[in-house]
Amino acid sequence: MHDRSTSKPDITDAERIARLRLIRSDNVGPRTFYSLLRHFGDAGTALEQLPDLARRGGAARPGRICTEDQARAELAACKKIGVSLIAPGEANYPPRLAMIDDAPPLLGVRGTVETLMRPMIAIVGSRNASGAGLKFAGSLARDLGEAGFVVISGLARGIDQAAHRASIDSGTVAVLAGGHDRIYPPEHEDLLAALLQQGAAISEMPLGHVPRAHDFPRRNRLISGASLGVVVVEAAHRSGSLITARMANEQGREVFAVPGSPLDPRAAGANDLIKQGATLVTEAGDVINAVQPILARPVMLKEPDDEYSEAEPDSGERARIVALLGPTPIGLDDLIRMANTSPAIVRTVLLELELAGRLERHGGGLVSLI
């Protein structure tokens, strides 16, 4: 382990292009991206190997690989609207976000990007919030801003926008579910323009990407990942805010919840979080006192591990591992034990299956066949 709270040198332009091509290619999500980088050492070599890996994983035909021209066009379009694509460890990449296993390999940032290096607290909640919930979210955001924290949220209707509006002057960060040029909901374009003066917006999606339902949970992991902790102000059962709280828990972040009336369904999820051990919040001091000890510790990121070590599975090992997989998710440790082979071999086979579009990854390190 080492302290990466200070920035690494910037990656080269050529490596940035190669990384952008890799993350924009078919079947390459953040986890697969990092697996490829560890396996091959750099994005350029990984790109060359994609067709062969997908073929070994059983793909009928190779997936689409982003071309250099497409990557250069995206970089140029980003520059035109003031978006920079930065890698973990570079200046202005949120340091706590860089700690998570599936951090965006390139994050699109714009606005007053220095804001992204300050300690952040997430405030999330119901889209159809009560008047009391909106008022509390605003006062909590204002008080946290005055105490030196940056409020981060998802630019959604309801609690999110109340938290952003109250912390515009102190600095707030909007995490977008779509591309920087596809703001959702559209009526918050003015709010976004206002918050960029003292704050910032971030997105892992390409320009032109219109957010769909499954993009919002993906966005939520960035909200929790970049923050010290997540405050849930109002959330019904099965609310997206509860997904953010669960991800915060998995990422080792603090989870806070504001209690509400047991008669209001909008408070049911937050009340349940308190029953499950979330810190009860009635004022900003509750949050500040809980995160002070965390602030005293340096931000530590994992060193790249040697989990692949040039492992080349033979056809028998590959068949054995695939046979153990099915539609029911299974843990990596169980798979390694049952396959009676090395972790490196199992991870390589999973990488091949993923690039063939045959593997799905679930929370908690579980995998299943599609």
From the structure above, extract its key features.
disordered N terminus; alpha/beta; 14 strands; Arc Repressor Mutant, subunit A; 13% strand; single chain; 3 domains; 42% helix; 370 residues; 9-stranded mixed β-sheet; Rossmann fold; 3-stranded antiparallel β-sheet; globular
Describe the structure in your own words.
42% of the residues lie in helices and 13% in strands. The chain has 370 residues and is an alpha/beta fold. It has 3 domains: 2-81, no CATH class; 109-301, Rossmann fold; 315-369, Orthogonal Bundle (Arc Repressor Mutant, subunit A), CATH 1.10.10. The strands form 3 sheets. A 9-stranded mixed β-sheet has the order 2-3-7-6-5-4-8-9-10, with helices on both faces. Strands 12-14-13 form a 3-stranded antiparallel β-sheet. The radius of gyration is 21 Å and the shape is globular. The relative contact order is 0.13. Mean pLDDT is 91; it is low at 1-6.
Question: What's the quick description here?
Answer:
With 370 residues, the protein is of the alpha/beta class. 42% of the residues lie in helices and 13% in strands.
Largest sheet: 9 strands, mixed
How would you describe the shape? globular
Protein structure class: alpha/beta
Which regions have little confidence, pLDDT < 50, spanning 5+ residues?
A: 1-6
Secondary structure: helix percent: 40-55%
Instruction: Give the beta-strand count.
Output: 14
CATH class of the largest domain: Alpha Beta
Order of H and E elements: EHHHHEEEHEHEHEHEHEHEHEHEHHEE
State Rg. Answer: 21 Å
Mean pLDDT: 91
Could you tell me the CATH topology label of the largest domain.
Rossmann fold
Strand content: 5-15%
How many domains make up the 3D coordinates? 3
CATH architecture of the largest domain: 3-Layer(aba) Sandwich
- Order the strands across the largest sheet as they lie in space: 2-3-7-6-5-4-8-9-10
Q: Total helix count?
A: 14
Q: Alpha-carbon distance between the termini?
A: 35 Å
Note the quaternary state here.
single chain
